[in-house]
Amino acid sequence: MKTVKKDDRYVPFGIKLMLTYSLFIIIPVLLAGYAANLIFTNSIQERTREANHGTLQQIKDNIMYKMEDMSRISDMLYLDSNLASYLRHYEEGWVSYEVTTKQLLPKIQTTIEAANNKMRLAVYLHNNTLPEVYHNYNNTDPLSTEGPLFDLYHITRIQDKSWYKEFPEEQYGVTLQWKQVEGDSVFRHISLLRRLVDTNKPTTIDEIGFIRISLRLTDLLESVDADKLGEETQIFALDENRKIMFSSGSKEYLIGDTLSEEKMADYWVIGEEIPQLNWRLVALVPTDIMDKATQKVQLWTILICLACYLVFSLAGLFISRFYSRKVSKIVRVLDAFQEGDFQKKINFKGKDEFTRISIALNEMGQNIDELIQEVYMTNLKKKEAELESLQAQINPHFLYNTLSSISRLAKFGEVDKLQRMVIDLAKFYRLSLNEGRTVIPIKNEIEQIGAYINIQKTKFGDGMRVFFDVDPDILKYMTIKLILQPFIENTLEHAWYGERINIRIVGKLEDGKITCQIIDDGIGIRPETLSQLFDPAESLNVGYGIRNVDERIRLHYGAEYGVSIVSKPGIGTSVNITIPAIPKENGIKGGEEPSNSLLRGG
Question: Most CB atoms closer than 10 Å: which of 196, 207, 288, 508?
C-alpha cells in the first residue's frame, strides 16, 4: 500500500482547545468584571451622594432648629396675654412708669435671657403713654456692644418703613418673617419680624406692637461647614436671586456675588430649600472625590478578574491536556491507518465520546482491512457477487464513490475528513447489514441515514444542508430497514436546483402510526414522471427504488401503509412514509443511541 507522507505543520488540538477555552473564558470574566465594577461604582457614588445629601440635610435641620428657637423666643411675648393687657394701659404718670419698669422691661429681659444665641430685641409699641427705652449705637453693630440688648420704641419710628408696611396680613400664631432690614445687611445680621397682638378680644386681632429679633448670620448658619462634606467642597446660602448670602469653603466668590450656572456645571450639585428664609443651601462637591472613591473598587475588580482568569486558565490547561492526550492517541491511530497498518488499536476507559470514537476506529480499521483484503486482494469476485445480492438495498455506486473519496482523502492527507467518512461508512454498513435482520429499531434507521448524510456532506460540503426534526418517542418502535436512505439518495441525485439543496427529515407519532417525511426544496418532479413512479408498467427504470420501499412496506404491514409523494416543479418534493407503531421486541438489540443533533438539529 502506498504510504502517505505526514504533514506535521499544524496547531495541536490541545493548544486550539486551550485558546478557544481562554477566549470564551476571558469574555465572560471581562463582562462580569465590567458589570461588577459598574454596579459597585454606582453604589459607591450613590452612597456618597446620599451621605453628602444627608449631611446637608443635617445642616439645614440645625438652621431650622435655631430659627424655631427664635420663633419660640418670640412666642414668649406674642402669646403672653398679661403683656397684652399691660400694653393696653393708656394711663400716664405713675401707672405708665409702673407698667414699664415692673412688667414690660422684666418680661423683655427674661425673653432675651432665654435665647441660646446672642440677640437684640427691639419692641415697637402703639401705646404712646409708655416711655421709649433705647440705646444709641452710633452706627455700630448693636450685637457687638456691652449691656442690655433690647430697645423699646414707639411704632411711629417704623410706620413709614417699607418692610413694615409690606408685612403680611396677620394669621394668629403663624405670621412671622425672616428678613434683612435696616442695617442687617451691613452688619451681617438677619431679623425675625412679628406682630404683637391683643388676644383678649374674642372677635378681632388688633396689632398692639411689633417685635424685631436680630441675630448674626454666622450664629444662625454656624453649622454650614464645607469640611463636613469633604475637601474642596463649597457650600453657599443663596437668596431667591441666586445672590450669595453666606458661604463656606469658597475663596472664589464673595458675599453678594451671584453663583453662575457655569460654576455649578463642574460639580455635583446638592441642594436644600430653607422656605422660612426663602433661601437655598447649595453644596458643590468636586467630581474627583467620586473618582478617588471608585479607584479602589476598580483596582480590586481588576485583581479579582485576574485571579479568576488565572484559576480558570489552570483548570482549562488541565482539561486541555487531559483531552489532548486522547486526541493524540487517535491521531497516532489515524497515522497508522494512513501507513496501511489497520491492526492498530486504541482503548479508552469510561463511557464518553472518546470511547465511542475508539470503538468506531477499531471497527473501522478492522472493517477497512477486511474490505481491502477482500476487494483488492483475495476475494474481489466474491465481494462483487455479494454486492449484487444487496443491490435492491444499497446502491453499489455509493460504495464505490465513497471508497474513492476515502482513497482521495487519504492521498491528500485530509485525515479529519477521512476519519469522519470512514467512521460513517463503517456505521452505515454496520447498521445497513444489521446482522442480516430485516426489522430493526427506528433509532438504527435514523443513525444509518445520519451516517449516509455525513458521508455525502463530506462530498458536497456546504452546498448540502440537512435538518432533522425527529420525535424521540418514535425511537422505541421497529421498522423494516432502508426505507429512508433511497429517498435521500434520490434527492441528492435528481433534485439539485443550483448549487445548494436543503433537506428536512421529520419523524412523528400520530394515532398509532409513525409518519416519516423527507422534504426538499429542489427542482421538484414533473406530473408525468410522478404518475409513473408507482406504476411498474410504465417503465422499469422510473422509480424503482421508490416502488421497492413502497412494496416492502405494504407486503410487511398491509395495504393501508406505504409511500406517498407530493411535488411541485420549482418548489420541491415531500415524501411521506407511513408505518404502524410496533414496539421494540424483547431480545432485539438496537444500535447506538442517536445523538440529540440527529433528532432535533441540522
Answer: 196
Are the beta carbons of 351 and 357 closer than 8 angstroms?
Answer: no
Q: Note the helical H segments in 339-473.
A: 353-372, 380-389, 396-411, 415-433, 442-460
Beta-sheet pairing, 267-274 with 279-286? antiparallel
pLDDT (mean) for 539-547: 62
Q: How far is Cα 249 from Cα 252, in angstroms, rounded to an integer?
A: 9
**Can you tell me the distance from the alpha carbon of 122 to that of 113, in angstroms, rounded to the nearest whole number?**
14
Q: Are 271 and 229 in contact, with CB atoms under 8 Å apart? A: no
In angstroms, rounded to a whole number, what is the distance separating the alpha carbons of residues 590 and 497? 37
Tens of pLDDT, residue by residue over 495-505, are: 888 888 999 99
Q: Which residues of 12-33 are buried (b: 16+ CB within 10 A; e: fewer)?
A: ebbeebbeebbeebeeebeeeb
CA distances, 177 to each of 143, 158, 284, 569 (Å): 20, 16, 28, 95
Provide the whole-model pTM: 0.46
- Cα angle 210, 213, 215 (rounded to 5 degrees) comes to 160
For the record, the C-alpha cell of 156 comes out as 411711629
Quick: pLDDT tens for 170-186. Answer: 888 889 999 999 888 88
Report the amino acid identity of residue 205: I
